[in-house]
C-alpha cells in the first residue's frame, strides 16, 4: 500500500470504530485506486476519495410498532445517503437482525461505484432496520413498514433518494412502504423501485439481479470462447437473487446443484429443474418455509445444517465449474475459496454484496479464475431499478423483451468497462480493480466539476 493509501486507511479505521465490514469494503477500493491516485494528483488535492468515504448524510431513527399480542416493539431504522454526485441516492433497504450502521455504510459505499458502472444517473445509498420479518404475520410486517416510512418519508423522494428491496425486503414490504409514503405525501410518484406491475413496477425487476449476474458470468466465459451450457453451478441463498440466478442458469443449459438459507444447504446431484425451482419459489415466497423442506420433498437431495463452528461452509466443497454466492456478505472465506478451486471452480460471479472475504478474494485473483465482484456482477438489479425510474418518469411501460434487452446491453457494457479499464491500468484480467476504477472515475469527475460539497 502507498503512504497515501495506508494513511487514509488508518484514518478510516480510527474514525469508524467497530465497523469491520465498512473497513473491508473501503480497503479493497483504496487498494484498487492507489494507481489512479498516483496518476491524478488533482483527485488527491480535492480529497475526492476521502469525501467518498464519508457519507453525505446518515439518518438513524426509532421505529416503534405493536405486535399481534399488543406488545410494543422497538427497532432501529437507518438510511445512509452516501454520494449524490451523479444522481439521486439509490439503493436497497435491508430488514435483518444483523443490520447495523457499519453494514449499511459498507453497502452504501459499494452502491456508489456499482451505480456508476450501470451507465445510468444514480447516486448511492442504502438503508434498513434490525427488524426480522421471519416468523412475523403480514399485519405485523405492515405495521412495522408503516412506522418505518412515517419517519423515512421526509428524507426521500423521486428526485432525492429512491430506495428499493434487499435482504428481507421483497414485493410485500415494498407495497406496504409505498402505501404509507403515498398516504403521507398525497402523491403517487416513483419513490421506491421493485413495485408491483399494476402500480408502477417494471417487468424484469424481480428477475434482474439474478439474470444480470448470469449474463455477466456468460460475458466472462465468452472471453475464453466458452458458454454456460453443460456447466455445473453452486448457488447459495434461496431468496430473490438465488431464485432468478437458478432460473437463468437452467435456461442457458447449466446444472444447479445447491441452494441454502441461514439454517443450512441442500445438495441435489441430479440438478434443480424447473419443477423443483417452482417448489422453492412457492416455499420461500408464499409459504415462507425453510430450505430443508426441499430435501424432505425430493429424495435426490440431502440437507446439511449450518454449523458456525466448522470454520467453513461445505456448500462450497462440491465438484463444479461455477459458483454464484447469492446469500450475504462474507459467506466465502479463504478455506471456502480454496475448496472451490480444488473442486474445479473457475467462474465466480457474486450475486450477493461482498460475499467473499478479503483473503478469499486474494486466492481467486492469484489463481486467475474468472472472478466478478458483486459491484459489477449484481449491478443488473439496480440497473433495472433505474429503468423503472425512467418508465415512471415517462408514465409508460416497456415490454419484458425491451427491459431484458436493455439489461443485457448494460451487463455487456459493465463487462466492457471492467475489461478495458483493467487493461488501461495494467491490471488485465482483474475485474476487482477494473470495476473499482471504472466506477470511481465517473463519480470523481462529477465531484471535481461540482466543487467542494
Ligand atoms: P432475500 O431476503 O430474498 O434472500 C436472502 C437469502 O440469503 C435467504 O435465503 C437467506 O436465508 C439468506 N441469508 C441472509 N442472511 C444470511 C446469513 N447471515 N447467513 C446465511 N444465509 C443468509 O435477499 P436477496 O436475494 O434480495 O439478497 C441476497 C444478496 O444479494 C444480498 O447480499 C443482497 O445485498 C444482494 N443483492 C440483492 C439485490 C436485489 O435486487 N434484491 C441487488 C443486488 C445485490 P434466510 O431466509 O434463512 O435468512
Within the largest sheet, what's the order of strands?
9-8-7-6-10-11-12
CATH superfamily label of the domain at 208-377:
NAD(P)-binding Rossmann-like Domain
Which structural class should the secondary elements be placed in? alpha/beta
Mean pLDDT metric? 98
Strand content range: 5-15%
In this entry the ligands are: NADPH dihydro-nicotinamide-adenine-dinucleotide phosphate
* Helix content bin: 40-55%
How does the overall form come out from the CA principal axes?
globular
Number of DSSP E strands: 12
Q: Alpha-carbon distance between the termini?
A: 28 Å
**String of helices and strands:** HHHHEEEHEHEHHEHEEHHEEHEHEHHHH
The poorly predicted ranges are: none
Known CATH architecture of the domain at 208-377: 3-Layer(aba) Sandwich
Blueprint of the fold:
Blueprint: H1 3-15, H2 20-39, H3 41-45, H4 48-53, E1 57-66, E2 72-83, E3 89-95, H5 101-117, E4 124-129, H6 138-152, E5 161-164, H7 171-185, H8 205-222, E6 232-235, H9 240-251, E7 255-261, E8 264-267, H10 274-286, H11 292-297, E9 302-305, E10 322-324, H12 334-342, E11 347-349, H13 358-367, E12 370-372, H14 374-377, H15 380-394, H16 400-424, H17 431-450
Parallel strand pairs: 3-4, 3-5, 6-7, 6-10, 10-11, 11-12
Antiparallel strand pairs: 1-2, 2-4, 7-8, 8-9
Helix pairs in contact: 1-2, 2-5, 2-17, 5-17, 6-7, 8-9, 8-15, 8-16, 9-10, 12-13, 15-16, 16-17
This protein binds NADPH dihydro-nicotinamide-adenine-dinucleotide phosphate.
Amino acid at each position: 500500500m502507498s503512504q497515501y493509501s495506508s494513511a487514509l486507511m488508518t484514518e478510516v479505521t480510527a474514525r469508524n470504530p467497530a465497523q469491520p465490514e465498512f473497513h473491508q469494503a473501503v480497503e479493497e477500493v483504496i487498494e484498487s485506486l492507489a494507481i489512479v491516485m498516483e496518476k491524478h494528483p488533482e483527485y488527491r488535492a480535492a480529497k475526492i476519495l476521502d469525501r467518498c468515504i464519508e457519507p453525505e448524510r446518515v439518518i438513524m431513527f426509532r421505529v416503534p410498532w405493536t405486535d399481534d399480542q399488543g406488545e410494543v416493539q422497538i427497532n432501529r431504522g437507518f438510511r445512509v445517503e452516501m454520494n449524490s454526485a451523479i444522481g439521486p441516492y439509490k439503493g436497497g433497504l435491508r430488514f435483518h437482525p444483523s443490520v447495523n450502521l457499519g453494514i449499511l455504510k459498507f453497502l452504501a459505499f459499494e452502491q456508489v461505484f456499482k451505480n456508476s458502472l450501470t451507465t445510468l444517473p444514480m447516486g448511492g445509498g442504502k438503508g434498513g432496520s434490525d427488524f426480522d420479518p421471519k416468523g412475523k404475520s403480514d399485519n405485523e410486517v405492515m405495521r412495522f413498514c408503516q412506522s418505518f416510512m412515517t419517519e423515512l418519508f421526509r428524507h426521500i423522494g423521486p428526485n432525492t433518494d429512491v430506495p428499493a428491496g434487499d435482504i428481507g425486503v421483497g414485493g410485500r414490504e415494498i407495497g406496504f412502504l409505498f402505501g404509507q409514503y403515498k398516504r403521507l405525501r398525497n402523491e403517487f410518484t416513483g419513490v421506491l423501485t421493485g413495485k408491483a406491475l399494476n402500480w408502477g413496477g417494471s417487468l424484469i425487476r424481480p428477475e434482474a439481479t439474478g439474470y444480470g449476474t448470469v449474463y455477466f458470468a456468460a460475458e466472462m466465459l465468452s472471453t475464453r470462447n466458452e458458454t454456460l451450457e453443460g456447466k455445473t453451478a453452486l448457488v447459495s441463498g434461496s431468496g430473490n437473487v438465488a431464485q432468478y440466478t437458478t432460473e437463468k442458469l437452467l435456461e442457458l443449459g447449466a446444472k444447479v446443484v445447491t441452494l441454502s438459507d441461514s439454517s443450512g444447504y441442500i445438495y441435489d446431484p441430479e440438478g434443480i429443474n424447473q419443477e423443483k425451482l417452482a417448489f422453492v419459489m412457492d416455499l420461500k415466497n408464499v409459504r415462507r418455509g425453510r430450505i430443508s423442506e426441499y430435501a424432505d420433498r425430493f429424495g435426490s437431495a440431502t440437507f446439511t445444517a449450518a454449523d458456525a463452528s466448522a470454520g467453513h461452509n461445505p456448500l462450497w466443497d462440491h465438484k463444479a465449474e461455477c459458483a454464484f454466492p447469492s446469500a450475504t456478505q462474507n459467506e466465502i472465506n479463504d478455506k471456502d475459496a480454496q475448496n472451490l478451486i480444488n473442486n474445479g471452480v473457475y467462474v465466480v460471479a457474486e450475486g450477493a454484496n461482498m460475499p467473499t472475504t478479503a483473503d478469499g478474494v486474494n486466492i481467486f485473483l492469484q489463481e486467475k479464475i474468472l472472478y466478478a465482484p458483486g459491484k459489477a456482477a449484481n449491478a443488473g438489479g439496480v440497473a433495472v431499478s433505474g429503468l423503472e425510474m425512467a418508465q415512471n418518469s415517462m408514465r409508460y411501460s416497456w415490454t419484458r423483451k425491451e427491459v431484458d434487452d436493455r439489461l443485457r446491453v448494460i451487463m455487456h457494457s459493465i463487462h466492457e468497462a471492467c475489461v478495458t479499464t483493467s487493461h488501461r491500468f495494467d491490471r488485465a484480467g482483474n475485474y476487482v480493480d477494473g470495476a473499482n476504477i471504472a466506477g470511481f472515475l465517473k463519480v470523481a469527475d462529477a465531484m471535481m466539476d461540482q466543487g467542494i460539497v
